[in-house]
User: What shape does this take?
Amino acid sequence: MKCRKCGGKAAINMRQHKLSLCREHYLEWLPEQTQRFIEKYRMFSPQARLLVAVSGGKDSLGLWDVLSRLGYQADGLYIGLGIDGGLAYSSESQRLAERFAAGRGLRLTVVDVAALEGATIPEAAARTQRGKDKPCSVCGLTKRHVMNRAALDGGYDVLVTGHNLDDEAAVLLGNTLTWATGYRARQGPVLEATHPGLVRKAKPFCRFYERETAAYALLRGIEYIYDECPHAVGAKSIYYKEVLNQMEAERPGLKLSFYLSFLEAKERGLIAAQSDPAAAGLHPCTTCGQPTSAPGQCAYCRTWERVRSQAVRTLEGGQPV
Amino acid sequence: MKCRKCGGKAAINMRQHKLSLCREHYLEWLPEQTQRFIEKYRMFSPQARLLVAVSGGKDSLGLWDVLSRLGYQADGLYIGLGIDGGLAYSSESQRLAERFAAGRGLRLTVVDVAALEGATIPEAAARTQRGKDKPCSVCGLTKRHVMNRAALDGGYDVLVTGHNLDDEAAVLLGNTLTWATGYRARQGPVLEATHPGLVRKAKPFCRFYERETAAYALLRGIEYIYDECPHAVGAKSIYYKEVLNQMEAERPGLKLSFYLSFLEAKERGLIAAQSDPAAAGLHPCTTCGQPTSAPGQCAYCRTWERVRSQAVRTLEGGQPV
Assistant: This one.
């Protein structure tokens, strides 16, 4: 395989694009494509203040690297979830995120959930209904809340996440198999701020295959955490990714055309949005003030209040948490 | 495994329904369910004159058996396609269809495509662009045309086909992966006659898994053709069935919930129909008079005219067809 641009030895062959590139030209190509997607989907202007949600993985660190190289004002946000899973998952990913930022002189905000709310994610999950099977529900809820608040408090214009095509296609497949049309109607490269208290969100990597973002991080020499979150094992999203990978192996480009034809159908108004749960009237949470569709308190405040009350009850009962 | 109704030895265990039944109760259950679906989706009344499209396979013969037992006036239509494929596919399936009808005193109409149009399906495919890779396109076109004409000419109220859940879910998945929203909007247990020259269509088996219809035919002692059409090998629909079977193995009931949640979303108006190609203005074909959206001749007449002209040209050139 030869690089299409210079004829040198190819570092990556992208079957779905019928394109092979050497290391040097791949490291040029991916940022160029990212810039193209930012413009095509009107994600943000060159002047926008961006907050990049950074997990320590290849996607978010790769994205932060690319946005900085493209000249955007992009700060980072790391959320400490307190997940160990036998591999010091959170502390290791935090170390890598901090090292990345320090090495490039980038600004990283760290929010530690245990310091903020009095318990780690696994502790919270163990104390609530929401975490009966897995902590993923309370984790997702918490990350969404903290990211939104950090972006608003910091005066950022857009919250940027590293979701890649594999992530997006898996969510789309899951929502499609259950015809969760409301959620589907909101899926896309940009999630508009439909309410003053909600930050605008964008996913500049949404058209890159996971292997493309992984190749970028590797070829760029970014040190990132290889492990998936230990709680993600058996998650539906991973299962849907496997199904899509199988289909992709059989029909190269399927994942991309699945996602793009969805966006096109949505663009043409063919993906109905009637039942969008977020379209219901939002009002400020009585505790934190963030917009919520639930009456009174938002799900975040309600959940974490329950976590704290459970801690007290458990201590009173003298039982270990 | 025991039969839930009588405690006897179960002949089938349906994980997705959490239901095991013995032979006798299964042979009661499937027709009862069929009747329930006929009513639920308002397919046809007890007085309707039905034409069942019969291929000689388990689904269509099983369906004809069930409809007759339920007391419906159901005649059969067999279309001779002239497919051999090394296993005398068409002649064997015709023999089984005729034998089924004769044994039960049912009325079967046989339309032979070669007698009607001067060439078998494989011959036609070899002579046209439509059959360059596979004869499936010209075959589908021909069957739809012949079925519609036979139903209209015979004064039938509804054309009934044996599509099962696996068929429907595979088509749905295929249309979903490409977001072919127009086609999807028309998919369902009933296809209304949207135009005077089009017959109403219904699929009473659309909620049965393929293994359920196969079990019915086996337990009822119906002799049917086991082979798939030899041209179906490698077809996308078969591929999508495999993907769905894998997902079903992991999550029993997925196929059914995929299909039912789709129907529900459609019912609630969430599956947009704007781009339905059939919604475009129909007019009578200048040759056969059947409704078509193409200008002038319909695709059926155009294709078969080309097939015949190719035969003449080939003979003139002195080359074998």
Remarks:
- Chain B has a mean pLDDT of 90.
